[in-house]
UniProtKB/TrEMBL annotation:
Its EC number is 3.6.5.4. Composed of three domains: the N-terminal N domain, which is responsible for interactions with the ribosome, the central G domain, which binds GTP, and the C-terminal M domain, which binds the RNA and the signal sequence of the RNC. Residues 100-296 form the AAA+ ATPase domain. Keywords: Coiled coil, Cytoplasm, GTP-binding, Hydrolase, Nucleotide-binding, Ribonucleoprotein, RNA-binding, Signal recognition particle. The chain holds residues 1 to 296 of 448 of the full protein. GTP binds at residues 108-115, 190-194, 248-251. It is found in: Cytoplasm. Its main location: cytoplasm. This is Signal recognition particle protein. Part of the signal recognition particle protein translocation system, which is composed of SRP and FtsY. GO terms for molecular function: 7S RNA binding; GTP binding; GTPase activity.
Length: 296
């Protein structure tokens, strides 16, 4: 599970503080050194760690904490608040169009979990009373269309496809007309992915964006790739502009470096987390709940 290693190490650092009763500045600084190492071992971005620890030190080495009757608890509370802040602070929701359909464009590299996430998101939105149309606009990956159709069947929501011979821009535009005439209030477009970011991919995504003006561009990244995921997010955001991130495979990511870095590095919120391969394994991302997982 996510944050396993980090949670153990922080627990260790704070247990030492708890055993001490009153704390000196030296005690707090010692604990923060351990926090810093633990975060680096969890593959959190170096600059993010530096800023984070400095901020905590400023807050925790003050008079209020050191003279408090429960100083260790105070330090833990501060770390909890700052971890929450690091992951975006408050929960960030999808923007729905005031005039439906809401158009959601999914982007990401091949293998990140994009197509699976389209199915999961459709299920989640359906449970919230929406009627999403899934759109197969990844015309390159063999079996992507079929995969989406299977997901659509499972979720019992329609899938729009024009095969793999049409331009993704035309497919996306036709899908929106289809949604308008069939009462689908959300359109989720599964776009192409590649193994690496390249100009052709970005051009195609930019063209789709320009043609359909999505209300929401969600970037799907694999949390298990750590800082690579952060770099991918930065690149996509610079080239395409994204509104939020979906971090997949959190169930297999024991370290959590991407989750803790991506929103401070890119300035974009993590809107959803993937916690498994099943359709029900997509959850809204709550920074405060994730911070509590770390601190137990
Ligand atoms: P795409 O190429 O980005 O469309 O990737 P896919 O949707 O085909 O997913 C690639 C693999 O990742 C599949 O085997 C999915 O089952 C798996 N996957 C996607 N999301 C998650 C997740 O949150 N947790 C786990 N464990 N596996 C996931």
């Amino acid at each position: 599970m996510i944050f396993e290693g980090l949670a153990d190490k922080l627990q260790g650092a704070f247990d030492k503080l708890k055993g001490k009763g009153k704390l000196s500045e030296k005690d707090v600084k010692g604990a923060l050194r351990e926090v810093k190492l633990a975060l680096l071992e969890a593959d959190v971005n170096f600059k993010v760690v530096k800023k984070f620890v400095k901020k905590i030190e400023e807050r925790a080495v003050g008079h209020e904490v050191l003279t408090s009757l429960t100083p260790a608890q105070q330090v833990i509370k501060i770390v909890n608040e700052e971890l929450t802040e690091l992951m975006g602070g408050t929960q960030s929701k999808i923007t729905f169009a005031s005039n439906p359909p809401t158009i959601i464009m999914m982007a990401g590299l091949q293998g990140a979990g994009k197509t699976t996430t389209v199915g999961k998101l459709a299920k989640l939105l359906k449970s919230q009373g929406k009627n999403p149309l899934l759109v197969a606009a990844d015309i390159y990956r063999p079996a992507a269309i079929k995969q989406l159709q299977v997901l659509g069947e499972k979720v019992e929501q329609p899938v729009f496809t024009m095969g793999d011979k049409q331009d993704p821009v035309d497919i996306a535009k036709a899908a929106i007309s289809h949604a308008e005439s069939n009462g689908n209030d959300v359109v989720i477009i599964d776009t192409a992915g590649r193994l690496h970011i390249d100009e052709a991919l970005m051009d195609e995504l930019k063209n789709v964006k320009k043609a359909v003006k999505p209300h929401e561009i969600l970037l799907v990244v694999d949390s298990m790739t750590g800082q690579d995921a952060v770099n991918v997010a930065e690149n996509f955001d610079q080239a395409l502009g994204v509104d939020g991130v979906v971090l997949t495979k959190l169930d297999g990511d024991a370290r959590g470096g991407a989750a803790l870095s991506i929103s401070s590095v890119t300035g974009k919120p993590i809107k959803f987390g993937g916690f498994g391969e099943k359709l029900e394994d997509l959850r809204e991302f709550h920074p405060d709940r994730m911070a509590s997982r770390i601190l137990g």
